[in-house]
Amino acid sequence: MAKKKDTLKDLNEFMKSQSPQEEGDSKDFISKKPTNLAEVESLKSEVQKLNTLPDGSLNEDEIASFIKKVANTHQISDRQVLYKVCEKVLDQLESKEGADIMLENMVLYLQHQDLIMEKLK
Questions:
Q1: Taking the CA of residue 49 as centre, how many other CA atoms within 13 Å lie in the half-sphere pointing to its CB?
Q2: Which residues of 92-110 are buried (b: 16+ CB within 10 A; e: fewer)?
Q3: What's phi and psi for 89, nearest 5 deg?
Q4: Residue 55: what are its φ and ψ, rounded to 5°?
Q5: Of all helices (H) and strands (E), which one includes residue 57?
Q6: What's the predicted TM-score (pTM) here?
Q7: pLDDT per residue of the chain (121 residues) written in tens, 0 to 9
Q8: Nearest to 38 by CA among 96, 95, 97
Q9: Does residue 35 contact residue 42 with C-beta atoms inside 8 Å?
Q10: What pLDDT does residue 41 have?
Q11: SS3 assignment, position 75
């Protein structure tokens, strides 16, 4: 019978085997002041821009009804049309941020979720 592995014990043994110098470095790292500040100011300005727009100025309702209309015309899911729209918008970005890449991966996952689940079984 195969020996059952205990991941926490293995991790504990590994951590004990590490040199004490590395531990000191991590304490120094934690006490350091951050060298790179998050772009909080730019995020605040973006949120303020969205808050100052009058209701309906982004035409969300028209966009949503157009997506539904396209889906009904082509007899596909509303979600699939939305995923394609997200893909196209993300493709048009000149520089992508981490959130853009994460959204792109999420859209890919959602588009092919059935295939992924089938492969996992």
A1: 7
A2: eeeeeeeeeeebbeebeee
A3: -65, -45
A4: -55, 135
A5: none
A6: 0.50
A7: 566 778 888 877 887 787 665 545 556 666 766 666 566 666 677 767 766 767 767 788 888 899 999 999 999 989 999 999 999 999 999 898 899 999 999 999 888 887 777 778 7
A8: 97
A9: no
A10: 66
A11: coil
What is the phi-psi region of residue 56: left when phi exceeds 0, alpha when psi lies from -120 to 50, beta otherwise? left
pLDDT at residue 111, as a whole number = 87
Count of residues making up the chain: 121
Contact 80, 111 (CB under 8 A): yes
Measured between alpha carbons, how far is 15 from 9 in angstroms, rounded to an integer? 10
45 and 55 Cβ atoms separated by less than 8 Å: no
